[in-house]
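Entry for zinc ion complex. Fields follow.
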Amino acid sequence: MADCIFCAIANHEIPTDVVYEDDKIMCFRDAEPQAPVHVLIVPKKHIASLDDTDASDQELLGYILLKVKEIASDLGLENGYRVVVNNGEDAFQTVKHLHFHILGKRKLTWPPG
Ligand code: 5GP
Ligand code: ZN
């Protein structure tokens, strides 16, 4: 999709610190990390938010969650990590391309702000 920063990253149009990539997803380091490890997983296909998914995305969504576990293990997050999907305005979703944050390597407080 034109003018989507995460589509541009997924298409290798912008140099990015890629952690994992396959034909369906890309994982890269967040430009403004909120924890010592902070990466984002995005589907290569443009989906604006979780609200824009439907039953045809069931396999992709399950695939991403299973990759979260694998990538977290590869990044050495054996002591735990948090997975965050900000959806819509109240959650401060700033990039309108679905992404899963993985944060770790520090104690994360709860509740979130
Ligand atoms: P959101 O608030 O939408 O859930 O999170 C968007 C995230 O994308 C933020 O953590 C922000 O730092 C990150 N981000 C925004 N633009 C870029 C970029 O061009 N490159 C990378 N690596 N991360 C970005
Ligand atoms: Zn996009």
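NOTE: The mean pLDDT is 97.
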